[in-house]
UniProtKB/TrEMBL annotation, chains A, B, C, D:
InterPro entries: Adenosylhomocyst_ase-like_sf, Adenosylhomocysteinase-like, Ado_hCys_hydrolase_NAD-bd, NAD(P)-bd_dom_sf, S-Ado-L-homoCys_hydrolase_CS. GO terms for biological process: one-carbon metabolic process; S-adenosylmethionine cycle. Its cofactor is NAD(+). Keywords: Hydrolase, NAD, One-carbon metabolism. NAD(+) binds at G243, D244, V245, G246, K247, G248, E264, I320, G321, H322, N369, H376. PROSITE patterns: ADOHCYASE_1, ADOHCYASE_2. This is adenosylhomocysteinase. Binds 1 NAD(+) per subunit.
Length: 483, 483, 483, 483
């Protein structure tokens, strides 16, 4: 797409694929609202007080229908919002159109190039000359990373007059980041520094447990079916990794009638797989007899081109981990004589010259549930996103109180339990209430939290406070240590 | 669409939605071939001998990618083929385009009107002045019905000179059938009679057991997800009917995490549901608390507008039985003040004026797995369709031998077992072989059949021989009595 | 045990293990009554009219708690009853004691020798000099067989004066049968002929489907746990045969967390296993890597001593098919140097001399669910046994009407459905009722039967009418052809 | 039983039910060894060095076959051992006999009175005049409690001359504890103080996660079947609490075909239940319609007599949580006119006078899986017990090094992973190995630990070091905060 910003009649900026899909997007947003009771409860509880009045929020998070409900919850609470996606394939164009038309500045479309992706990220962060956003909703940390790298470059430039050099790195994507920063630097050598000064905090939509397990259990078969229409029953499926994502994937495949084999490095997770009747083997053990391969490890270099060469004709290879380095796409692309046949967008058949057999790679090795289907369903995202809203509210409310230092915080357990409780009514559940006597017996407050912080979190969103001052810590680690 | 026949460069007739989708269709057909080992085995075994040389075959069967592999198996065995779909929503336009371009005369597109539907059926039967097809592959019996009604009308006309009167019936669809016959009669008063004379037999793709159970287990959640993206886990789902279709649907919903409630009339099927931990209640018991309703009964008038009025906001209502009379669409459309909002094709929200709440109806009450997804997966259809090929071969081979009388035959058990065996290799299975001693002990031949005819058929396609003479029996009953 | 008949104070004959267990048996019978709503409904419906008044019934059927409720249903309807077990391990001694004390003549104990077994069978048939029973409830046909062989011998003896010669057969068990007949012949050369004359009919408790599937799903893991306490999760289990018994076993093992491998001869059943994610291989493929082996085939010579030699140390080998010829016990016993270590009754470790490793054989290769646990649970047996009561009632009611000829009948479908309906209330189910219009549409009566005779029977008990005259057909074949 | 100590020929003390069961116990111990690869690996790795040489270990832990393998692992490593059970119903008498005869001093039998229970505990702690054990393996903390209370009493007595007064408490069991201490005090006023001085540490077999989930999934249905033979399929089962124990129970019941309803106080656990298709309601909502009730909460006062009064006839009520205060047994016993009918040991029917209907209570409200079946299977216990052995080794090895202070420690993650790894081979699993590059990428050592300490522990045994000096902390809290 031509990289020029467009404007709505009201003057709000955007860049989306097709504004005519806005009506369709609106209808699906309305459906999703019914499935997202946590967000709707936030609107009901906090909307009247307009707590985000005056707050500028930038989001870098898959621009889907569910995210649209999140965005409109933020705006319903008074925020001004600019948004980009955090994955080149994950935008739903009708969702982007509806939000761009009705609610917020959106820069996102399905099938961005990496160049376009970072242009969108920069647009989402650019709130004009007075600085960047007050708050960031990040997923994967790319928005935060851009500020971080920008500040670093501006500091070097201020001290040495030296511009960042894209050719200093082999990483193609990082070259793009450096180019953007370099080009911006010439025009405004304090842009990212001003952003840093203004920024109150970031809440990071990185989750574990609940949404990974149940979301992937839903969206893995959905992606497989939409991309390939293949019958899962009777097939041999290999799930690489048996963390929460892997558990969700393995459960879905097993329930659909596949014979599931798990690869694992952790003996405890391996035992868990065995207890469910799953075989635990290495990828090498099974590479030539399986029909479906799914990577879920959060690690890199899981399925290499040398594995793919040995697979059965039309074996399906896909990734459902956040980053796109689990499957060796580079090795595949560079394999001598390999031929790529695009069946349809996000579904490619790669044919090896020696055998003239091919494998089916989904979403170019990126998140297949977002690339080939619509990601986690609304109900799951409602849990995660309600946590995000609450984290943003907390950061904004306490921005000047000193309650949060410059560090990474996990959302407190009682808020996690509150978010869960907001979702029970939709499913017709009745919670049991502790008596005082029982609460005392197990040493918890009657109203919770009932468990220690690390126990089975619903959705471990966390947040970073930047305390309003000096340099800030980046989201460099998961404080919970979850995979 | 304008109802005019088009022609390929080679002169073959067709009418499809968009010929430019032929390449895409071809790629998906090639994928499907790998998943349809039974059909490919037929090509390998019978292709060289060209047993269908000279045979004209008309098909009336969902014009999908899988059916494309069936059609090209028939042509690979020497047949000439004309095809229409047996459901107004079930055509996959890229499949139709690929077949129209490459292999057979196709008259089908997704979203036909009833008028268009019967025009297509007539086109598929029309092989020119020398008569109709030699063989019919039918699904639901519409092609056979048209001949039957045509012959009846021609007989009346010959005796009395009287033309059929469309206004003699209340049934809107049957009015269309009579109109087509009436209009044809004037031009050619012996057309259907000549068809009857020529016709050797029909094989009917009406199945039970294997493909209903496993096919629906796959395609019900697929259709739900593509149409609504709704999370199934945690929801209350009502499955009306617990035959094979219902069993497949209930299993899929339960495995996806729904709480499933079954309605049944048959106490034995009800007991089976209970044994799986499913609740058995009446629709009235649960109509206002469930989230998803699926009809699978094969009966009519299952979910009436008075039920729909009482449902929760955004309850999903869909049908996966063959005919579209399980859900009271007429009652819904005529409900005073009801409002229909089309979210996307095949997904409508109907809003009731009293409550201003709506329900989501899929595929206008027709087969939701074909209307909203891609129907049964290739592997399942390979079993059914291989049976069809074998039935057609048998009818054609024995057309003059008198082996088959003018009546309905179920495919013999040993062919059923053979078809199953053709599908085992793809899934890596090793069958155990009986010793002579063991075979004698249980009184079966070593090579099978191992079970009596009615025992757990793979796919009870049946066939009708017309014996080459005089009036023929129509497919008026399922000789197996299956639901 | 010393083979002498004992008598209660009231003069009724019996031979059981330990009369002091009668109270315990009575308590468990009372529990079972609550779980057997079909039988209790028979007592309520038919008891007042005493339809069995004057009928003498002999039963040869596992003498368990559930059978006790059957027996007391027969007596509650007016019958006089004599009973033996149809398996040397299946008697529950407390059940036998309670019935012997309170209700009927019982000859049965857990752990009979074959000699004792046939003595008990003869006792159960012996109603004194006026002839045998009016009706037989048989399971496996041994009671009927004894009459059949007895009549044959008496006919030969009458014609030739020749006595049966036990040494004429290699089969050890049949030698015992011939000996009993020979010894009886000398005392009374017309005993079995008189029995034949008197006998009205037999109902055979041989079932398929419902009770095999759900009963074994319950009782297989129960037997495994009671016999070995082994953890099933994580183990590799081989199920030989995937009929209804095999399906129940495989489901139970899979659900308990085992990885299940199926062996099959029938490609359709093999496909069904694959569709559930089970691997289908031959026994030879997996004999040395599996932990648990279960035979369910109804065939013979399934697991031979040469298989057992290759198994892992402490592999568990058991049979849940009716007959004890699936596992090669003879081969095992005769294996040179093999050592048998009895862990506890019905749980033996057999150690092979070459490897000094052993396998665990349950119930000496006989029905492990009856030998090691308590068989099918009451609720399942209530379905089967209610069918038996209804069959007996029908035979007795029509004994002089000529309604039934000398042949084998399957219970009519509407009675099968009635029995199912009697069991729904206990599980809280509400059946849906057809409207007249719907019933007409699918061409069934409103009140059923809803399905053709062979469709998914609840419990295919069948009955043999002997028409009150001349020679009678024996139960030599399953008229349904089920495995 | 008469409470007198007996002695083996070799002079070792014991008190068990029936020494003649020792051979049977030995056979089952040998079977269990094959299922407990972790313990056998400890014998192989550590046995030769005899690291426990000179150590006196007291255990208070269910005296089962599995515990026998633990005890003989401790003795194989050089320890001297005295043992009692930690539950009045959980001893397996044949296990106790085998150990008493062959390996260690045992004071335990199935069905102890509370009086007997504490006598056994005292015997297990009594190593003669030189003080108590060097190490304790505790489960539930009763052995540690007795020392704690003893020291407290001795301190008071030393200061004030006052003896503990059993009548000072309402708690019947604590009265017994005080009586024992009081009676001992007169004879030896420094006994518990000397024990305290000597004690190096305690490892507590209180676990979470792995063994609760998989162990209860196995042993709950086992206990139900052995106690009641009831068919689980089709029943409505209520599981109170959805922690790991509840999850295992609910999974087992669902898989066996029950309809499962969960009660929960924690909204996150409630959401998890809903995601599995389970209904979440309060006990009051369902008390009168369910068939089976299981308490798993770890809390108290869950099922009260007022609930039990409203249950269906023959509803089954049982507890699988550690303590016996989840079911209101006291309220039941004291209910006016209630009648208790013992079906068999651990299976009682309680009949209410108003309705003359009864409920079935298992194991008198105590751990039903140990009371009615054989507890967790060997493989599960091997994981827990291998952790115990490793904890004991660590405490003993570091007794003088000061590595551990007087506080509670959770076993380090790498040992937890090691224990898991020892169990993979038995199940045929192949672990994947990280490359250096991958390990660096996710910031873990190649050889693990791969997860943070609190992540999905295999078995959170913990240990208390007493540092060899002064007063010691008691096990008053679970440092992990798990339910």
């Amino acid at each position: 797409m031509a990289l020029s910003v467009e404007k709505t009649a009201a003057g709000r900026e955007y860049k989306v694929k097709d504004m005519s899909q806005a009506d369709f997007g609106r209808l699906e947003i309305e459906l999703a609202e019914v499935e997202m009771p946590g967000l709707m409860a936030c609107r009901a509880e906090f909307g009247p007080a307009q707590p985000f009045k005056g707050a500028k929020i930038t989001g870098s998070l898959h621009m889907t229908i569910q995210t649209a409900v999140l965005i409109e919850t933020l705006t319903a609470l008074g925020a001004e919002v600019r948004w980009c996606s955090c994955n080149i394939f994950s935008t739903q164009d009708h969702a982007a159109a509806a939000i761009a038309r009705d609610s917020a500045a959106v820069f996102a479309w399905k099938g961005e190039t990496l160049q376009e992706y970072w242009w969108c990220t920069e647009r989402a962060l650019d709130w004009g000359p007075t600085g960047g956003p007050d708050l960031i909703v990040d997923d994967g940390g790319d928005a935060t990373l851009l500020i971080h790298e920008g500040v670093k470059a501006e500091e070097v430039y201020e001290k040495t007059g030296q511009l960042p050099d894209p050719s200093s790195t082999d990483n193609a994507e990082f070259q793009i980041v450096l180019t953007i920063i370099r080009d911006g630097l010439k025009a405004d050598p304090k842009k990212y520094t001003r952003m840093k000064e203004r920024l109150v905090g970031v809440s990071e939509e990185t989750t574990t447990g609940f949404d990974n397990l149940y979301g992937c259990r839903h969206s893995l078969p959905d992606g497989l079916m939409r991309a390939t229409d293949v019958m899962i029953a009777g097939k041999v499926a290999v799930v690489c990794g048996y963390g929460d994502v892997g558990k969700g994937c393995a459960a879905a495949l097993k329930q659909a009638g596949a014979r599931v084999i798990v690869t694992e490095i952790d003996p405890i997770c391996a035992l868990q797989a065995l207890m469910e009747g799953l075989q635990v083997l290495t990828l090498e053990d099974v590479v030539s007899e399986a029909d479906i391969f799914v990577t879920t490890t959060g690690n890199k270099d899981i399925i290499m081109v040398n594995h793919m060469r040995k697979m059965k004709n039309n074996a399906i290879v896909c990734n459902i981990g956040h980053f796109d380095n689990e499957i060796d796409m580079l090795g595949l692309e560079n394999y001598p004589g390999v031929k790529r046949i695009t069946i349809k967008p996000q579904t490619d058949r790669w044919v090896f010259p020696e055998t003239n057999t091919g494998i089916i790679v989904l979403a170019e090795g990126r998140l297949m549930n977002l690339g080939c289907a619509t990601g986690h369903p609304s109900f799951v995202m409602s849990c995660s996103f309600t946590n995000q809203v609450i984290a943003q509210l907390e950061l904004w409310k306490e921005k000047a109180t000193g309650k949060y230092e410059k560090k990474v915080y996990v959302l407190p357990k009682h808020l996690d339990e509150k978010v869960a409780a907001l979702h029970l009514g939709k499913l017709g559940a009745n919670l049991t209430k502790l008596t005082k006597d029982q609460a005392d017996y197990i040493s918890v407050p009657i109203e919770g939290p009932y468990k220690p912080p690390h126990y089975r979190s619903l959705c471990v969103g966390w947040m970073v406070s930047f305390g309003g001052k000096e340099t800030r810590p980046l989201l460099e680690e998961d404080p919970m240590g979850f995979e």
